[in-house]
Amino acid sequence: MLAISAYNVVLAIHIMGVVIAFGVTFAYPIMFALTARHGPRSLPLMHRIELTINRALINGGLLIVLGAGIYLASKGHHWKEFFVSWGIGAVIVIGAVTGAVLIPTSKRARELAERDLAASGDGDPTFSEEYSAVTRRLNVAGSFLSLLVLVTIFFMATKP
């Protein structure tokens, strides 16, 4: 008979939370590059999708990761371990950057893309420097968070 402990079930939920919250974010650069090249009029929709993912998947996933992480640290008596402190810090930073930068900036990027497309009329779309600056901010913040997620996974897997 196969015996599965509650700890292992919660560990699986914790890992699934990470995959659900952050998996798609690694595809953002490819999605936006393809959209900009092949369907720039779809950029407002892409920013709407990005905003929805930031609100629903990332924030929801963070709650799952945090809740499961607290259980795992408590049950395994790991509160004094570096990887737990790092993980909690990462959750706080990811939540703060998502709420303070990614969500409002995604919304602003959508608004600017809509404005710039409307100003372009039926001609070739051109985007303002303001739109470019906002999307650069999104790229920098997103890249930082992706790196933070990868480093955190490393610390969780190796438990230095």
Written description of the protein model:
With 160 residues, this protein is mainly alpha-helical. Helix content is 81%, strand content 0%. It is elongated and about 65 Å long.
- The succession of helices and strands, N to C, reads HHHHH
Q: What class do helices, strands and sheet pairing give?
A: mainly alpha
Q: How many beta-strand elements?
A: 0
The N- and C-terminal alpha carbons lie at a distance of 34 Å
Q: Count the helices. How many?
A: 5
Q: Determine Rg (CA atoms, Å).
A: 19 Å
Spans of at least 5 consecutive residues with low confidence: none
Shape field: elongated
**Helical content band:** over 70%
Q: Mind describing the biggest β-sheet?
A: none
Beta-strand portion reads: under 5%
Topology at a glance:
Layout: H1 6-22, H2 28-38, H3 43-75, H4 82-120, H5 129-158
Descriptive keywords:
elongated, 5 helices, mainly alpha, 160 residues, single chain
Brief sketch in words of this structure:
With 160 residues, this protein is an all-alpha fold. Helices cover 81% and strands 0% of the residues.
